[in-house]
Amino acid sequence: MRTGRYQLVRSTSERMSAQVELFYWANEMSLRDRIGPENPLFGDGKTESHGYVTLSSKIWGDDVGKYEHRVVMEKIIGRKLLSTEIVHHINEDKKDNSPDNLSIESRASHNRKHGTGELLSCGNCGKTRWYCPALISLLRLPYLCRACYVDRKDEKHPLAKLTMAEANRIREMSANGMKGKDLAKMFGVTPVSISEIINMRKYK
Fold it and tell me: First-to-last CA distance in the chain?
């Protein structure tokens, strides 16, 4: 019988063999293959992600990995939700996915419900537009849309850099041979804006 280094190598080999055997045995008894109530670690097949309830177990079939509120709404309407459709929680409780608490919103309307800002109506034509608080602070009251301000030839919209008279002057100077980049520097706008004014895409 050999001793020393040979005995150490042999004992190491036996331990590795035992570990490999243990691995294959554990793999046969893997909990991954035991889904649902058969798995001792099974709860209700749901987890929380970003405050929403997610269907995280294989028992949900094709719906696994989806948000529960979207799955519930798809069953209510009988079709798949579009990527532009948002499911809104009426009572703002993200975990309450009862049908009575869910409604379909567009991305714009949903953002307005949860965001800060105000929907303003033009005092002249009635056209509405959503403004954030920072832009509202720059607007004059009563509010007029950009088109209605342009109709007032000598007035300028608070969010516009040029008046109609300045736009006409740009066209005249361009017709006399002045370059667009020089006009942009003179009036404090971009060369792209100068091009759009000259080509009658702005300030018509």
Answer: 103
* Residue pLDDT, tens place only, 87-131: 999 998 998 999 999 999 988 888 778 878 888 888 778 888 888
Cβ-based burial of 55 (10 A; exposed 0-12, middle 13-18, buried ≥19): buried
Coil/strand/helix, residue 118: strand
Handedness of CA 195, 196, 200, 204 (dihedral sign): negative
Residue among 100, 204, 103 nearest 146 (CA): 204
What gap in Å lies between CA 7 and CA 1, rounded to an integer? 9
CA distance 101 to 92: 9
* Full-model pTM: 0.48
Per the CB < 8 A criterion, the answer to whether 60 and 45 are in contact is: yes
Q: How far apart are CA 48 and CA 97, in angstroms?
A: 13
DSSP string, 51-83: TEEEE-SGGGGGGTTSBHHHHHHHHHHTSPPPT
SS3 state at 120 = strand
